[in-house]
Amino acid sequence: MFHFAGASCNNCDIEILDCLTPRYDVERFGMVLVGSVRHADVLLVTGSINQKCRSRLLEVYRQAPKPVVVVAIGACGCTGGIFAEGNTFAGPVDKIIPVDLYIPGCPPKPEAMLAGIVKFLNK
Ligand code: SF4
Question: What's the CA gap between 41 and 53, in Å, rounded?
């Protein structure tokens, strides 16, 4: 999986890192964070998407090998959250690229992220 942080406050990003620690150990589900989206089949998106990062998200999505599973994480990723009314807001993630999985929360706990990922894997 590759992690794209939009205009995030970084709390969702920290919770993703928590999933990678031995305590939550997301690697037991075969999920590893990679440094390039070209090596990923899951794209994690956190934070609201503003006008500045919109084009970067599109470029990252274009570079991802298809099919790629897009996961919108947190209230900001799912809807724009508290930034949705801002004048630089460029739309929730699913208005820019297709989203397969939504994990709400502000921030979602690691348990919620793992539950969402396991549900998706089972599907
Ligand atoms: S959903 Fe909440 S915790 Fe996550 S980036 Fe937005 S404001 Fe921060």
Answer: 21
Which 8-state DSSP code applies to residue 40?
-
Strand 42-46 and strand 69-73: the pairing is: parallel
Above 90 in pLDDT, residue 32?
yes
pTM of whole model > 0.85?
yes
Determine the Cα–Cα distance for residues 49 and 33; give it in Å rounded to an integer: 21
Q: How far does residue 53's CA lie from ligand 1's centre (Å)?
A: 16
Q: Three-class SS of residue 1?
A: coil
Residue 89 has pLDDT above 90, yes or no: yes
CATH number of 2-122: 1.10.3720.10, 3.40.50.720, 3.20.20.70, 3.40.50.12280? 3.40.50.12280
pLDDT of residue 117: 85
Collapsing DSSP to helix, strand or coil, 113 comes out as helix
Q: Is 25 helix (H, G, I), strand (E, B) or coil?
A: coil
Q: Among 106, 109, 113, name the best residue to mutate to test ligand 1's pocket (greatest count of ligand atoms within 8 A of Cβ).
A: 106
